Write the structure tokens for this entry.
Amino acid sequence: MILFKRIRQLLLISIVSISALAIALSQPAFALPNSGDMMPSGLEEVSQEMDGGFESYMPAQIAKISKAADTVKSMRKTLTNVQPDIQLRNWDAVHDDVARLLPKLRQNIKSVTDNLKLSDRALARAVATEIFIHLERVDEADELQNYQAAEVNYTQALQDFDIFLTLLPTA
């Protein structure tokens, strides 16, 4: 099971990386006629920001991300309160917990990912999307009172959450 989880994580990372590369390669090159190496006004800053994506984070950036990430981490802990309700098949409580958590989680994860460098942002957003999909499926499963679907999607949401947290820079 652990091997399957690791393969799943590596496959997700590979797919997102390949997708980002394909998008980057499909974009037209920026150049002015007879301009040599000059870039149009404003693109130089964008280029420097994109090149900076492969550099390390500055301490101020890490502090800003860490502050937003602390809220996301606390929401991860809050999510663990859902499992007992799933096991007890307390579907109203499961629905209430997920419905209360999901909007705040979306907002806080967006806040974190918006502060990541461009090179890290796409993968973090893809993993975040997986978290949201699994939590929505937990909510759908509680409406159908489907214990197995709720448990599987809850477990996958936690796994994706843990992957997301590993993508965040640390000091």
